[in-house]
Specification:
Blueprint: E1 4-5, E2 12-13, H1 23-39, E3 41-45, E4 50-51, E5 66-70, E6 77-81, E7 86-93, E8 101-105, E9 110-113, E10 120-126, E11 130-132, E12 176-179, E13 195-200, E14 205-209, E15 215-217
Parallel strand pairs: 3-5, 4-6, 5-7, 6-8
Antiparallel strand pairs: 1-2, 7-10, 8-9, 10-11, 12-13, 13-14, 14-15
Amino acid sequence: MANSTSANLKLTVQATGENSGTWGQITNTNLLILEQAIGGYDAVGITAAATLTFSNGVLSNGKNQVLKLTGTITGNKNVVIPDGIEKTYLVENATTGAFTVTFKTTSGTGATWSTTDKGYKILYSNGTNVVDITADLGDISSGAITATGHIIPGANDTYDLGTTVAVWQNLYTGDLHLSNQAKKQGNVVDGTRGNWTLQEGKDDIFMLNNISGEKFKINLSKIKGDS
C-alpha cells in the first residue's frame, strides 16, 4: 500500500513497509507541519489577491496558525484557502489602504475586514466557508468586568448602554460629556445639536458649552430642613 495524504494539513501518512531509509525524514517534516499548525507565524503580502498553499507533505504558508496580512492595497483583496480544509487561524490585517480584505475558501464565503478595520480576527474554516468567531460571539455573560483601558463602541452614536427595561443602577463618573453632534437631526425641543461637559465644583455644578466656550453655573436650591 502506498503512502496517502491527510485531508487538512496534507501530512504524509506512511503505509506499513514504505519509505525504507526515509521514514525519519518524512516523520520530521510531518512534525514541522504540526508545529506550523499549532503556533506557526507567517507574514503574507497581499498587494495582489493571494491564495495560500497547502502542498502535500511539505511546509506551506496556509498551514500556519498565525498570519499577518501585509502590503499597500489599491483595491479590495481576497485571501483564499482551498475548499475542504478544516483549520483555525489568528489573522491580523496589517495592510495599508482603505479597501476591504476578505479571508475565504475558494468556492465559499469568508470573513471581511472593512475599509477602515486594521485589526485581528479569530477564524476557522469548516471546509466550505470561513467563519469569523470574533463576529459571532454573541452576548457575553460575566460577573464584574475590570478594564485597564478604554471601552469604545464599534461605531459612533450606534449602541446603547442599558435598555428601557434593563437600566444600570448607578453611574459613577468624573466629568460627564454630552454631545449629539453625531446625529443627523438635533434634539426634539429646538432641533439643534450641542456639545456640553458637566463638571463638579466644591459648592456648585458647572456646565461648559464646548462649542461656544461659555461656562454656566447650575442654580441649586437647598432642601428645606436639610442642614
